[in-house]
Write a structure and sequence with these properties.
mainly alpha; Na+/H+ antiporter like fold; globular; about 70% helix; 16 helices; about 400 residues
Length: about 400
C-alpha cells in the first residue's frame, strides 16, 4: 500500500511538471489540468474501492505555505529602480482599483439577496476580488518582459492588499476611527519587524557555512509569517519586503555598511535561494490544486443555481479589468484575460467562520468562478498572437 501511494504521488507530480512545461506552448493554465487530474484521481480511487483518509484539513496548511513561497518567489524576481517606477505605480493602482471597485459592486449585489451588515458582505466579496498570483504569474511566462513584470507586480499586490483588507474586516467588528488607527499601528509594527528580520536573515544567509542553510531560512520566514498571523498582522508585507531586499542587493553594493553582509557572497546565496524557492513553490502549488481537485464534487461544478451568478461575476471582472487597463494606458490584450481567481480565493473562503456566511457565496460559486476565470484566461492567451505581446508593446 505504501509503495502504491509513493508511486501515485510521483506520477501525479511528474504530470504536474509536464503541465507546467507545456502551458507556455498550449496556453492552457496548468491549474485547470491539475484540478482535472485531482478529480480524476478521486474517481479512480472510488472506482477501485480504495479507501483514503480525509485530506481536507491539509488544504489550508498547504495553501498557506504555497502563498508564502509564491509571494517570496515573485518578490525575489522583482527589480526596484527608476525605470520600474511607472510599472509599479500602474500595477499598484490597478490592483487597488480592481479590489475596491469589485468588492463594493459585489457587496451591493449580495445585499439584494442577503440582509447582512456591510462588513459581512465585504468579507464575502473580497475573496472573489483577488487575482491569483499562483495562476497568473506562471501563465504570463511566455509574455514580453514588460508585460510579465506588470503581471508579477499586479498579482502580488492584489494578493497582499486583498489579504490585508480581508484580515482588517475580519478582526474589526466595528469600523470606526479606532479600528483604522489600530490598523496603521499594526502596519507600522510589521514594517519594523520586517526590516529587523530581513537584516537578521540576510546576515544568516551570508555567514552560515553549513551545507544546509536554505531550508532553515525558509522555515524561519514561514515561522515569522505564522506568528504574525496569530497577532493579526499583515505577514505578507514581511514576505514582500524580505524578497525585494534580497532581490535588489545591487542597490547596496557601494554602501560602506554593506560590507558586513558580504554582498558578493550573499548575491550567490540569494541566486540559490531563488532557485530553491521556485522549486518549492511549484511543488506546493501543484499539491494544493491536485488536492483541491481531488476534493471537488461534480455537483458543485455543475450547480445550476450558482452558475448564472458565476457567469455574471466573470463578466463584471472582465468589464472592470477592461476599464482599469484603459485608464492605465496599457494594451488591452492579453492583459485583459489574465485575472484568474485561485489559491487566495480558496484560502480566504475556507478561513471564514460559518457565522459570516452569505447564502449566495458557496463552495460551488467559488469553484465555478475559479474555473471560469481560468478558462477565459486560457482562451484569451490561445487567441492572442505572440506578435501582439512582443511587437506592439506599449510603455508600461
Amino acid at each position: 500500500m505504501t509503495i502504491n501511494i509513493i508511486i501515485t504521488f510521483c506520477i501525479l507530480i511528474l504530470l504536474a511538471y509536464i503541465f507546467d512545461l507545456s502551458s507556455s506552448r498550449t496556453r492552457i493554465p496548468s491549474v485547470i489540468l491539475l484540478l482535472l487530474l485531482g478529480w480524476t484521481t478521486n474517481q479512480v480511487s472510488i472506482l477501485l474501492k480504495i479507501t483514503l483518509p480525509d485530506f481536507s484539513p491539509l488544504l489550508p496548511v498547504i495553501g498557506t505555505i504555497g502563498l508564502i513561497l509564491i509571494v517570496l518567489e515573485g518578490s525575489l524576481e522583482l527589480r526596484l529602480n527608476h525605470s520600474k517606477r511607472v510599472v509599479i505605480l500602474k500595477s499598484l493602482s490597478g490592483a487597488v482599483f480592481s479590489i475596491i471597485s469589485l468588492s463594493l459592486i459585489l457587496a451591493y449585489v449580495l445585499s439584494q439577496n442577503s440582509p447582512q451588515s456591510f462588513r459581512i458582505l465585504i468579507i464575502n466579496a473580497l475573496p472573489l476580488c483577488i487575482i491569483s498570483s499562483a495562476i497568473a504569474i506562471p501563465s504570463a511566462s511566455h509574455l514580453s518582459k514588460r508585460l510579465k513584470e506588470f503581471i508579477i507586480y499586479e498579482s502580488s499586490f492584489s494578493d497582499i492588499i486583498g489579504v490585508v483588507l480581508f484580515n482588517f474586516f475580519i478582526t474589526n467588528e466595528v469600523l470606526n476611527a479606532q479600528a483604522f488607527a489600530n490598523f496603521f499601528i499594526e502596519l507600522l509594527f510589521i514594517t519594523t519587524i520586517s526590516l529587523i528580520s530581513t537584516i537578521g536573515l540576510s546576515l544568516l544567509l551570508s555567514r552560515i557555512n553549513h551545507h544546509i542553510k536554505y531550508i532553515p531560512i525558509i522555515l524561519i520566514v514561514i515561522l515569522i509569517y505564522s506568528i504574525s498571523k496569530i497577532y493579526h498582522l499583515p505577514g505578507l508585507v514581511f514576505i514582500l519586503m524580505f524578497g525585494l531586499s534580497l532581490g535588489n542587493l545591487d542597490k547596496i553594493k557601494n554602501k560602506k555598511w554593506s560590507k558586513r553582509f558580504h554582498p558578493e557572497i550573499l548575491e550567490k546565496e540569494v541566486a540559490k535561494l531563488r532557485e530553491l524557492t521556485a522549486e518549492g513553490s511549484f511543488l506546493v502549488r501543484a499539491l494544493f490544486f491536485l488536492l483541491f481537485g481531488y476534493l471537488i464534487e461534480i455537483q458543485e461544478v455543475l450547480n445550476k443555481e450558482t452558475l448564472p451568478w458565476s457567469i455574471g461575476l466573470a463578466a463584471i471582472i472582465l468589464i472592470l479589468r477592461s476599464l482599469q487597463i484603459r485608464i492605465s494606458g496599457l494594451q488591452l490584450s492579453p492583459l485583459l484575460w489574465i485575472a484568474p481567481r485561485g489559491l487566495i480565493t480558496i484560502l480566504l473562503f475556507l478561513s471564514m467562520d460559518t457565522s459570516m456566511a452569505v447564502a449566495l457565496v458557496t463552495k460551488s460559486l467559488i469553484i465555478q468562478v475559479i474555473l471560469l476565470s481560468s478558462v477565459v484566461m486560457a482562451i484569451g492567451l490561445i487567441t492572442t498572437k505572440d506578435s501582439i505581446a512582443d511587437v506592439h508593446q506599449q510603455t508600461v
